[in-house]
Design brief:
The chain has 366 residues and is α+β, with helices and mostly antiparallel strands. The chain has three domains: 81 residues; 138 residues, no CATH class; 86 residues, no CATH class. Helices cover 18% and strands 37% of the residues. It is built from six helices and 24 strands. It has a six-stranded antiparallel β-barrel with strand order 3-4-5-10-7-6. Strand 6 and strand 7 form a beta hairpin. It is flat, with a radius of gyration of 32 Å. The two termini are 29 Å apart. The relative contact order is 0.15.
Length: 366
């Protein structure tokens, strides 16, 4: 039987805020960024849930190399049957201005066939950046937000067991030079490029510092600000800029469609022209009834089971609805709701309206 799935639709507008947005919420400083770190290591101390060494030879090779460095040598050809060791990848984000000795969180993920990392201990792991240099060292007991149990061929698992985190599990060994002042100027980069927002941010900064007028817009994303030479004054100067209120641009009209869940998200700038829309639903129902044919009591026949199928097609008549032109999201939503369409139907309707030129918005399907 064909069944229609239940979809959830989300339609909201980017409403004008009661208070203005701070610059720090819509922009960042040029050159101030985090850096990704990665490393390879072993997790030990597992309760028989580690890698199966016959299928993950790199786990055994890594353990032999580590034991050799610790002064333990094993005869060649030794068959190690390990159950409590797992090969893992360790990742972390090195925040800007991180100093040696600072602690950062790390994420540990299994790359073999270990069934669980619960209770494991990560061995010392050098974490490298994109340039191949070591910036942090990680080690510690893992925290896995899950649990699993099995017995008699049955098993149950809650959450994911093949990955975990170690809070403050890595120590920064080397800092990354952060140069965000160039020739006495600091760059402010908007998270979303917009000439309107760049102009408003520039005006807001210059209005806050009317004597110096330190800001000038370079393009639709970057604003350059003349900063003080003294580091302490510069920090106080940037702290004031981050809290300056500004009204950002609404951004382009956009509709995001999630074909898997049926979610529809619209921005406040979406508008439509007057158009007529008709949409109907088609339902196909298949029913199968088993039929059993029994032979006579003393006959030589055999029992035969067959299926009798009934197929029915029901098409709901779609009514023609006129959607009036509107420049507000409320008008668009009101017109679409008049059709009585499901979220999945809206996916097709919005694409058809876009193709007809009646919908003024960018369609993005994810």
């Amino acid at each position: 039987m064909f069944k229609r799935l239940f979809y959830v639709v989300i339609m909201f507008s980017v409403a004008q805020p009661v208070w203005a947005t701070r610059i720090m919420d819509i922009a960042s400083l040029s050159g101030v960024r985090s850096n990704q770190l990665i490393g390879y290591s072993l997790v030990v101390g597992l309760d028989g849930t580690g890698d199966q060494t016959t299928q993950t030879p790199f786990t055994v090779q890594s353990l032999l190399n580590m034991m050799g460095k610790l002064g333990v040598s094993l005869p060649a050809g030794t068959n190690m049957q390990l159950k409590n060791v797992a090969a893992v990848m360790v990742t972390a984000n090195l925040p800007p201005f991180a100093q040696p000795g600072q602690k950062i969180d790390v994420t540990v993920s299994s790359i073999g066939n270990a069934s669980s990392l619960v209770g494991g201990t990560l061995l010392m792991t050098p974490l490298k950046g994109a340039d191949g240099q070591i910036y942090a060292m990680a080690q510690g007991n893992m925290l896995v937000a899950g649990i699993g149990a099995k017995s008699g061929g049955s098993s149950t698992v809650v959450n994911h067991l093949a990955a975990g985190r170690i809070p403050d599990g890595a120590t920064v060994e080397k800092k990354v030079p952060t140069e965000f002042v160039r020739n006495g100027f600091i760059g402010i980069e908007l998270n979303q490029g917009s000439f309107i927002t760049a102009s408003r941010v520039t005006d807001a900064i210059n209005a806050f510092f009317p004597l110096t007028q330190p800001a000038q817009a370079i393009n639709g994303r970057v604003i350059e600000v003349h900063a003080p030479l003294n580091p302490d004054q510069r920090v106080n100067f940037l702290a004031q800029i981050e809290n300056i209120p500004v009204d950002p641009d609404e951004g382009p009209a956009r509709i995001v469609l999630d074909a898997r869940t049926g979610s529809v998200v619209m921005t406040r700038s979406v508008s439509v022209d007057t158009c007529a829309v008709a949409h109907g639903n088609l339902t196909v129902t298949i029913r199968s009834t088993p039929l059993v044919s029994q032979p006579n009591p003393f006959g030589a026949g055999h029992t035969v089971v067959s299926q009798q199928s009934e197929i029915s097609i029901n098409e709901e008549k779609g009514k023609l609805v006129t959607i009036e032109a509107g420049a507000k999201l409320d008008d668009v939503v009101r017109g679409l709701n008049a059709l009585g369409a499901t979220p999945q139907d809206l996916l097709a309707i919005l694409q058809a309206m876009k193709a007809a030129g009646a919908l003024h918005a960018d369609l993005e399907i994810i």
